[in-house]
Amino acid sequence: MLRAFLSAPSGVAGVIVLALILAAAIIAPETLSSQATTLDLRSATQMSSPEHLLGTDTLGRDILARLLVATRLSMGLAFASAVLGAIIGMTMGVGAVVLQGRARSVALRAIDALLAFPGILVAIYVGAIIGPGILGVVLGVGITISFSYARVTSALSLSIINRDYISAARISGISALRVMTRYVLPNIAETLAITTTVAVSNSITAVSTLSFLGLGVQPPAFDWGRMLTEGVQAFYVTPAAALGPAIAIAVSSLAFGFSGEAIARALNPVLWARRAGARADADARAITTVVHADSPIATASGQSVLEVRELSVSFPHGHSTFKVVDNVSFALRKGERLGIVGESGCGKTTTALAIAQLVPYPGSVSGSIKLQGQELLLDGAQNGHDADLNRLLGTQLAIVYQDPLSSLNPALKVGTQLTEASEIHGGVAHSDAVRTAIERLREVNIPSAEVQLVRYPHELSGGMRQRVMIAMGLMIDPPLFICDEPTTSLDVTVQAQIMDLLAKLNAVHGSAIILISHNLALVSQNTDRVLVMYAGRIVEDLTSAQLLGGGKHPYTRQLLASIPDTSRPREDRLEFIPGQAPDPANLPTGCPYNPRCPLAFDRCAVERPPLRVQPDGRRVACWAADAVAGERTTVAS
Questions:
Q1: Considering 226, 251, 267, which residue would you say is the last residue of a domain?
Q2: Three-class SS of residue 463?
Q3: Residues 263 and 310 in one domain
Q4: CATH number, domain at 492?
Q5: How far apart are alpha carbons 357 and 384 in whole angstroms?
Q6: Residues 390 and 333 in one domain
Q7: Residue 169 has pLDDT above 70, yes or no
Q8: Number of structural domains found in the chain
Q9: Where are the alpha helices (DSSP H) in 267-355?
């Protein structure tokens, strides 16, 4: 918890200032009340002195003492208003979302309508109706804050209200109140913690405003707003009487605003699990190194562009972690084309994201990733790149995603996005970058390249957007391209054109390519080597020629058998893999594939097979690999 708290420096500074303010609120009224309230007309309107650091007001009272004593009442009113607003707002926001059908829409529109009323005017109206004093201040400011709180809460609740676990709770007959308090609010608590601190910050300002206008604290009591009213009247005589409370209001408001992030992190158990997961990964690496000592990376002659060793990616799960990528190791030579295949959820895309340092929070990456011989997984590098690492990733690696429309910025023209990397990382002049962009667009067969530069992404077709993504990568001429399902959203003709383009770029520029796809036929035709992944692990590493001859791992064989074949009789059933991919957070013991494997035997259920090098050079993680090879030999003979 402490480490999570300290990970937000500005929040830590805010909490320290906040602690000092709260200390003053507790101690000052007990020790300085006499100095703050005793009248001494002989000492009136004095300037700063050792006896009175901020001077005295028009009635001879010590300004600093009054400022510190007023902290308790000012903070108390702000807290009370924020708590009232939070209770009302959370009840309105979550209650509206828990409703069904048209009732939900009406409730949400009502919350939107409440936001149209100016907050300070609502507070003034409530204060005027109830009358000047503390009760009017708390109710007025609390009701005002509840409107924005309800809007934030409803928006956060809408993002999770349709998730499966909430639907299951409703089907089980759990009451709406319990769904709200047990299933919805705990899942949005971190953001609400920040919202609450902002609400307290706004309350301080609003309470002081009402007191300044005469609707808040009434004499003889005083808060910062009341002091500000009195100080403004004598500003040219004793400016500290007005500046002191003004500064106190500003500093305390900022302190609450900044402290929200640190408090939210300290209250987030996901971050605790992430720290624990990092230690667990370190222990796991020490163990898996022994288990896989007989599993060297299949490297060949030639300079390695990319070396991945014992790569694991973990995510929090309660107070523990689970791995979506587990001990993945491979190398990629210059100009080599590597395919990664497997079912959805096997870890293909997460492996690519780990290489590109794009694993989303709160994921944790361990192992070693070397790009052009430089280690990427440095301490503090993940989620916080330094300048050198940014430059390395920006110039040595390009990624082409399956949906270029979501990858391209819709608010920027194509030309701006193409030239950005060259200008930032390469220091290229804008005119030179534009000329290069035109050349790259022509190279990827986009007609009228000069015209396309001034267009927005939505003005291009899907195939042209994908070509723009490839051209954007070519702007920096990277040694490595990662293509994650680059043809999924394209028709068959455009798919073939994109694959031909990638092959051309590989031949002309010598860029290594990682092609991620579900389409085993597409991968086998357009790569030199293939990694077959299952449950976050490599189960077979073989050349494309070996893949066409049949895999040794049963999973590879069943993937090949599942490819539609137009030569089959129409009445034949399509092959399929029985069962479904396992949950990464609850993998079966032994080989993860054993529940679905037709060749599984007792050893498969209790012992995980290591990734071992076979006589033909491929790597296979299967106890039954020899049986598969024997079966193939028998069929051949």
A1: 267
A2: helix
A3: no
A4: 3.40.50.300
A5: 10
A6: yes
A7: no
A8: 2
A9: 269-291, 348-355
pLDDT score for 229: 87
Domain membership of residue 615 (yes or no) is no
Domain that holds residue 324: 291-561
569 cis-preceded (ω within 30 degrees of 0) = no
Rounded to whole angstroms, what are the CA distances from 327 to 286, 346, 379? 11, 13, 19
In degrees rounded to 5, what are phi and psi of residue 535?
A: 55, 40
Residues paired with residue 543 on neighbouring β-strands, in sequence order: 529
Least confident of 1-15, 572-586, 599-613: 1-15
DSSP-derived 3-state class of residue 196: helix
CA angle 267, 273, 276 (to 5 degrees): 125
Give phi and psi for 173, each to the nearest 5: 85, 15
The verdict on 299 and 262 lying in the same domain is no
CA distance 329 to 350: 14
Same domain, 169 and 126: yes
Among residues 496, 570, 492, 569, the alpha carbon closest in space to that of 526 is found at 496
Q: Which CATH number do you get for residue 201?
A: 1.10.3720.10
Q: What is the pLDDT of residue 538?
A: 93
Please, what sign has the CA dihedral across residues 58, 62, 63, 68?
Answer: negative
DSSP 130-180: H-SSHHHHHHHHHHHHHHHHHHHHHHHHHTTTTSHHHHHHHHTT--HHHII
How many angstroms separate the CA atoms of 143 and 424, rounded?
49
* Spatial strand order in the sheet of 537-543: 397-400, 480-484, 512-516, 337-341, 529-534, 537-543, 619-620, 612-613
Contact 536, 608 (CB under 8 A): no
Residues 492 and 387 both lie in one domain: yes
Domain annotation covers residue 66: yes
CA 161 – CA 353 distance, rounded (Å): 29
Please tell me whether residues 392 and 486 are part of one structural domain.
Answer: yes
Distance CA 466, CA 460 (A): 10
- Contact status, residue 59 vs residue 39, Cβ threshold 8 Å: yes
Does residue 248 sit in the same domain as residue 300?
A: no
By percentage, how much of the chain surpasses pLDDT 90? 13
Residue 10 maps to a domain: yes
> Tokens 């990456």 label which residue?
365
SS3 content of the chain, % helix, strand, coil (to 5): 55, 10, 35
Q: pLDDT band for 403, please (50, 70, 90 cuts).
A: confident
In Å, what is the CA distance from 498 to each residue of 56, 294, 377, 527?
A: 79, 39, 32, 14
On the question of pLDDT at 635 being above 50, the answer is no
Q: pLDDT for 246-265, tens place per residue? A: 999 998 888 887 776 666 66
Q: How many helices (H) and strands (E) does the chain have?
A: 25, 12
In a domain, 572, yes or no: no
Confidence of residue 164 (pLDDT cuts 50, 70, 90): very low
Q: Which of 495, 528, 561 is the last residue in one of the domains?
A: 561
296 shares its domain with 171: no
Q: What is the DSSP letter of 387?
A: H
pLDDT reported for residue 263: 67
Name the percent of the chain lying above pLDDT 70: 83
